[in-house]
Amino acid sequence: MLKGFKNSPELDFSIPENKEAMLKAFEQVDKEKGQDYPLIIGGERIMTDKKIVSIAPSTKEVLGQVSSCDQELADKAIQTAHKAFQTWSRTPAEERICCVRRLVDLMKKNRFLIDAWSIEESGKNWGEADGELCEALDFFNSYIMHMRELDKGLELVDTEEECKCIYIPIGVGVAVPPWNFPLSLLAGMVVSAVITGNTIVCKPSSDTPIVAYKFVELCEKAGFPDGVINFIPGSGSVIGDYIVQHPLTHFVNFTGSKEVGLRISQKAAEVSEGQIWIKRVVAEMGGKNAIIVDSSADLKRAAAGIANSAFSFQGQKCSACSRAVVLSDVYDAFVEEIVACAKELKENQGSGRDDLPMGPVINQNAFDRISGYIETARKEGTIVFGGNYNDSKGFYIEPTVVRDITKDAVIAKEEIFGPVLAVIRVDSFDEALEVANGTEYGLTGSVYTEDREHIQKAKVEFHVGNLYFNRKSTGAVVLQHPFGGFNMSGTDAKTGTRDYLTNFLNLKSVCEDLTY
Ligand code: NAP
User: Fold this and answer.
1) What are 95-135's pLDDT values in tens digits?
2) Dihedral over alpha carbons 96, 99, 100, 103 (to 10 degrees)
3) Is 255 in the pocket of ligand 1 (CB under 6 A)?
4) Which residues form the active site (predicted)?
5) Residue closest by Cα to atom 8 of ligand 1
6) Phi, psi of 420 (to 5 degrees)
């Protein structure tokens, strides 16, 4: 049992003061809309001519323009981080921890404003946005706790020599987060790097650069020295390979799609001229997560959990359920239940700002991709609910349930990353496990059952990084459900843990013969 750590509680927006504060934060966001945001390299703010335009997915409104980094400025950022590493890496852990503690306080003080920006820029509802902020706080607090332990070094056997094995930082890191958790994943990558004494160059997603900027601004206020955290928004296709392949880059911390993750892995493995180390890559990637429902399951509970896993944040979580694998004898009854849940959600779809259970998908590309999959689903199975989409005012797609999908169908295999659920019929629990394991991914999974034997079997045979029983497959909480995937879902990082921090540390073994 882990003692001395508490998860941060989410805000209760039914409390009038919280609701009022949130509405005020939206007013502030409205005042800030349309601004230009710079890169931040070594504390210097740099505006470029080329801009990334941030668009609100709920309304298509322009939220602001963010300077876009080119390769020359990316080089400057990495050189700056390299220089800052010379002093930051030798700064005592307790001083680094002090900066993170101040960051925790600043995040809490600016909580409503950050939530409001996240809602506008990523299309989350209030609870999802604040849940994400709590996850970021949990990452910070857990990394503070782990760093204190790691700073003691490894315990070794006693000898007449003085032997120590100490953790030391490794160098300049590159952080490449996705847009769907624009705050917590980016913040977790940045803080895990710098608390361990590394310096970081952070390239946010081009869909959510303003939330990222707001976070980096708080890092500056928290007192991290110039050059320790550098902010270089820019297109992945323009500067992505460059920052990964730069000879001074020591590690890459990536979360995003399988395609980009594999590319980064490959590029990082090639040794650039002047590079004298093997780069480390943490790559957390996509999923095609299944939830099994067996004949003993409470179907109402299963449908509610699956609807939440498949449709909350419009299915745009890596942990989202996109396949319900259901035993034949309860298949029809389950479909009825899941349709009832989807119906309720559809009636409550709208902008994140209106705090409805379902909002828009992130952008036009995602809208086109997901609606394309819906058309494929129409041919591969029967759409029993949803199937409509509309991008006239924002990027809205109905929660969509497709039945009679075979295990080899396109929508049973490929990551859709949208609110589309394939319901697959199986004849036995063994077949259910085979289907659940039958994709190249291995991120999350869940089983609804009241059968102990099935639970035991699935614990061994369901091959995913995060396995749940009788609950949804989303909503992993820091240090309750350490998160990271198997197979093509990633390098199994298990964020929030002490092991995670060791990705960014070397162990130096030092021995002195005291008899000399
Ligand atoms: P993405 O398209 O792979 O982009 C992720 C990040 O990579 C973005 O910052 C992107 O920049 C950047 N990038 C693009 N090309 C690059 C290159 N050649 N080199 C370096 N960086 C490059 O993914 P996304 O659409 O943002 O996120 C959705 C995906 O993330 C889904 O597959 C989801 O399952 C996965 N995800 C996984 C986890 C997990 O923990 N396993 C968590 C969340 C999301 P631009 O924005 O400028 O293109």
Assistant:
1) 999 999 999 999 999 999 999 999 999 999 999 999 999 99
2) -170
3) yes
4) 284
5) 205
6) -125, 120
pLDDT in tens, 478-487: 999 999 999 9
* Residues forming the active site: 284
How open is the CA angle 388-436-366, to the nearest 5 degrees?
A: 30
| Side chain identity, residue 212 | A
The tens digit of pLDDT for each residue in 175-224 reads: 999 999 999 999 999 999 999 999 999 999 999 999 999 999 999 999 99
- Residues 435 and 325: beta-carbon distance below 8 Å: yes
Could you count the other beta carbons within 10 Å of the beta carbon of residue 113?
18
pLDDT per position as a tens digit, 315-331: 999 999 999 999 999 99
**DSSP per residue, 92-105:** -HHHHHHHHHHHHH
Cα–Cα distance for residue pair 348/325, rounded to 1 Å: 26
Using CA atoms, how far apart are residues 236 and 207, in angstroms rounded to an integer? 11
Domain spans in the chain, listed from the N-terminal domain onward:
17-285+492-509, 289-483
User: How many Å apart are CA 37 and CA 40, to the nearest integer?
Assistant: 9
Place of tokens 């780069």: 279
Average pLDDT score, the chain: 97
515 — pLDDT class (breaks 50, 70, 90): confident
- Tell me phi and psi for residue 475, to 5 degrees: 80, 35
Distance 256 CA to ligand 1 centre (A): 3
Q: Is the pTM of this model over 0.85?
A: yes
Under CATH, to which class is 289-483 assigned? alpha beta
Report the pLDDT value the prediction gives residue 4, as an integer from 0 to 100: 85
* Burial state string for 440-474 with b = 16 or more CB within 10 A and e = fewer than 16: ebbbbbbbbbeeeebeebbeeebebbbebeebbbb
Best mutation site among 132, 254, 318 for ligand 1 pocket (most ligand atoms within 8 Å of CB): 318
| 236 Cβ closer than 6 Å to some ligand 1 atom | yes
